[in-house]
Amino acid sequence: MQKRVIVIMGAAGVGKTSICSYIGKKFGIPQVITHTTRAMREGEVDGKDYYFETPSSFKEKHFLESVTYAGNSYGSSIEGLNRAWEQSDLVVTVLDTKGGITYKEELGDQAWLWYVTISDQGKLVERLHQRGDGDEAVEKRISSPEFKRDLALPAVLKGKAEVLVNDDWESLKLQVDGLINDYESNARLS
């Protein structure tokens, strides 16, 4: 079976991390741990949620892709992807759309792109506050060009990504379950 990585993309606050956690818990799909220079949020664990880096330690990694988002660096290392693939042929990661483009370019069909959005994008600010981001952090994030870019699926990825609408968590879980169950059924047949 070909090794694949589910790449969950979308604007901040659409539920990418929640989907990733759900997939891990329900289906046992390991997460590719990515790196960031942003400050750790309450409840996050280094090496589980992210590898939390300093600007200098970040520069020492071997990245498949990396970006600067709202003043912080984020990246997915080749070593992290291979560590996840040692655990399972199907793994999951959370990236921005720029990272999704890079994964598709570098990995081809091994990158299974999922773009997450919500119908009322005005609710994203509320979601960012609910997850514990302060007013200044939220304002910085929503005014960033990266946030604005991720509000829409890039043209280059149209027709290459699953589009999931996260207006209702229970409905979204059904969409996710369907995608994973179809994948697993097809994998058993091949």
UniProtKB/TrEMBL annotation:
Family, as annotated: Belongs to the guanylate kinase family.
Protein name: 50S ribosome-binding GTPase
Domain of life: Bacteria
Free-text function comment from the UniProt entry: Essential for recycling GMP and indirectly, cGMP.
Limits of the Guanylate kinase-like domain: 3-181
Catalytic activity: GMP + ATP = GDP + ADP
Keyword Kinase belongs to the record: yes
Key words, A-Z: Kinase, Transferase
Keyword Kinase among record annotations: yes
Alphabetized InterPro entries for the sequence: GK/Ca_channel_bsu (IPR008145), Guanylate_kin-like_dom (IPR008144), P-loop_NTPase (IPR027417)
Pfam families: Guanylate_kin
Organism field: Fructobacillus apis
